[in-house]
Amino acid sequence: MSKISNFHSKEQYEAIIHQKLNDNQLRENLQSVMQTLRKNRKNTIGSRYTNWEELRELGRKVKQNALANLPTLLERFEQNALKNGFKIHWASNAKDANEIILSLMKNNSQNVILKGKSMASEEIHLNAFLKENGINAIETDLGELIIQLIDEPPVHIVAPAIHKNRYEIGKIFEEKLNAPLESEPEKLNNIAREHLRKEFQDFKIGLSGVNFAIANEGAIWLVENEGNGRMSTTACDIHIAICGIEKVVESFEDASILDLLLVPSATGANITCYNNIIKSPRKDGELDGPKEVHIILLDNNRSKILADKHYYRALSCIRCGTCLNHCPVYDKIGGHAYLSTYPGPIGEVISPQLFGLDNCAPMLNLCSLCERCSEVCPVKIPLASLIRDLRSEKAGEGRGGIIGYHNTHRNKIEKQSFAIFRNLATSGVKWRLLIWQIRIFGKYGNIFGSLIPGLKNWLSCRSYPHLDATLHSKVKNLKGVIYE
Ligand code: SF4
């Protein structure tokens, strides 16, 4: 399994973005899936919900309340979970979490673990760590299985293999699983099912993520569509669940509100096929279920985000992925171009805070600030405005305090360009003169633009825009309104 290192230079970002932009098959696949996901979400919300905006506001309040009281709720969750028979582990960083899982594997003399989908396990690069220690982590979610077979990280936080179409998946199964070449979804599902069923027949330890941890109940709630999550958490002797500390909410009712928002936002469905609400390990007299359940409460810089009075709102995320689906940048380049476990708008907000601003700084440019993400986020995280604020941090002009920040990422040329832009944009006369010049000389842009360093990269993948010939007169007409 390929491991994503945390630091990537601006040049690495530029190289991968150009590679993805030139990959026509990828762009076709992404466009098709994103359109479907957006359409499904819109149809479901339009036809099944009469109070979506009220529900979003409720969801925002639920998460706000949970974050405001997180230390208390975490303690309450721990107490109740212990009473229920769970074992609780606190992991302050990725290394701690990985070590906890490794010691559970070693103590039980196991070298295979079956995994349900878990972005937290991707965040800590668990598979690569276990492999280094002789342990085989087998992905059982269909999308995760596909990318594991080709040694790629997830391209999306909900749908990890959406960059591959069914024909490509058929070829992957043929090459890696020795299966007959198929392209029908049912047949592909059957191939995956048969392959995984063998793994499920004899395994001792299963791993999952957590969607909601309920403090009042000491229970965890996992949503999924394939049944592999239920198998990974119930057919084993030991279940390990990795739970980011921000997943804790106060009550079952609170979790239900978030679930109502999560499912249509993620896939456009009304409800997921499987809701696994786990309240205890197997009790005396029960015939199935794991004998031990270990919950790892993962911090990994989340408490630092929580302490920030401005950026803490990023922790409200319920990982629905709809901000990715609506992002006009993500749907052109896909998740790998972000060079982080978390791509898209939410990735741009949390990656710098989880992994360090210097490490993720170039990622903040992958946003047009169109605000679509903020409009669709089911828990109303102001994503675009947080991205803009993080850009100020990157330029050394923010509030400060983001981890892993040492140098301003604003170079001299950028600084001078913005000073010139500010000078022009704040003077009506200069701005009109600029528009007039662009209109006259703009037609030479495609010919000579590539000779200008600042425009060279930009023009290598798009045409110089043609300014509307009527714009000058429109601007003139606005004179009285805007400039005077
Ligand atoms: S930020 Fe909002 S839209 Fe994006 S994944 Fe999180 S909850 Fe979903």
The CATH architecture of the largest domain can be given as 3-Layer(aba) Sandwich
The major β-sheet equals: 6 strands, parallel
Number of domains: 2
| Low-pLDDT runs | none
Structural class: alpha/beta
Query: Would you identify the CATH H-level superfamily of the largest domain?
Result: NagB/RpiA/CoA transferase-like
| Terminal CA distance | 61 Å
Shape: globular
Strand numbers in spatial order across the main sheet:
1-10-7-4-2-3
Rg from Cα? 25 Å
Query: How many strands in all?
Result: 10
Percent of residues in helices comes to 40-55%
Within the CATH hierarchy, at the fold level, what is the topology of the largest domain?
A: Rossmann fold
Q: Ligands in the structure? A: iron/sulfur cluster
What portion of residues belong to β-strands? 5-15%
* CATH level 1 name of the largest domain: Alpha Beta
For the residues shown, what is the average pLDDT? 92
Q: How many H/I helices? A: 24
Structural overview:
With 484 residues, this protein is an alpha/beta fold. It folds into two domains: 279 residues, NagB/RpiA/CoA transferase-like (Rossmann fold), CATH 3.40.50.10420; 66 residues, no CATH class. A hairpin with a 4-residue loop joins strand 5 and strand 6. The site of iron/sulfur cluster has 14 residues, from helix 14.
Task: Give short descriptive properties of this protein.
2 domains, 484 residues, alpha/beta, binds iron/sulfur cluster, 4-stranded mixed beta sheet, 10% strand, 24 helices, 6-stranded parallel beta sheet, Rossmann fold
